[in-house]
Amino acid sequence: MLSGGSYYGPYEKKVILENDFDGYGGVGQGAIIDSEEGDWYGLIFQDRGAIGRVPTLMPCRWIDGWPMLGDENGHVPLTMQKMTYPSENVKGILGSDEFDNEKLSLYWQWNHNPIDDRWTLTERPGFLRLKTSRLADNLYLAPNTITQRMEGPKCEATISMDVSKMKDGDVAGFSAFNGHSGLLSVIKEGKKKRLVMSTNVVNFSEGPGKKIEGIDVEEKAEVALNKEVVYLRIVADFTSHKDTASFYYSLDNANWKKLGTDVKMRFDYTRLFMGSKFAIYNYATKSLGGSVDIDFFHFTKSNSQD
């Protein structure tokens, strides 16, 4: 850090933080902030593998006019006393959703600008209905894909999906979504459905105005699906640079089976420049008119480093 008595200097230089950040690099922009109670903190972002860029909060101690970051030993603590919020009603940016409100929770992000007449929370109260809206041949071009960021060190999410109204050629499911994605997809082919675990890697053109040039798709495993409701689960592990996503399904939300292989998630600024997300999708490859109903999205997080 540089400090000077005026804009024109002269300046002194001092290292205000030196920490290995659990072996991750990529520490970037940030600021020094104070609370209503008069406590000071440093807030910076840090690249932490496939989870993406995460905010990192740490104590700040003023010593001889310098804002020294970290605890008394200069380390960024793994846990801290939670700051006092001005309101007890402050919510986090991630969480479970029963889809029982008429307005969509602010937990969610659309992957593209939404087509608002092709999704609804009111046609079937207690469910998010995703209707096909235009033809697409892959997840990256699919409209009305709804997402939530993943969270470390570990997290998992489960959805319940009613697939009874899918049409021939429709693809709907749950994804660990990024430039390198893992998917659990229900694919309707004629009168039959199959549940497929696959990987998708998107390839973009070079230069400004990137365009999708192709998708490398590899199907890892599949099972025939004879039920109208299927439960899908993704378990993400970001500990010790693992960055893996595992895929499970159930027909009763009690007995679970793993499908396919673990996927190595990545944070790639040359592609999508974002951390990994959970994504729920439904798109048509042949004709419009199909839909799926999502009963719930259940999110849990673990702080375990094991």
UniProtKB/TrEMBL annotation:
GO biological process: xylan catabolic process
InterPro entries: ConA-like_dom_sf (IPR013320), GH43_C2 (IPR041542), Glyco_hydro_beta-prop_sf (IPR023296), Glycosyl_Hydrlase_43 (IPR051795)
A molecular function (GO) term: hydrolase activity, hydrolyzing O-glycosyl compounds
Record keyword Hydrolase present: yes
Lipid biosynthesis in keyword set: no
Record's keyword terms, sorted: Carbohydrate metabolism, Glycosidase, Hydrolase, Polysaccharide degradation, Xylan degradation
Domain Beta-xylosidase C-terminal Concanavalin A-like stretches: 96-299
Name the record gives this protein: Endo-1,4-beta-xylanase A
Organism name: Bacteroides reticulotermitis JCM 10512
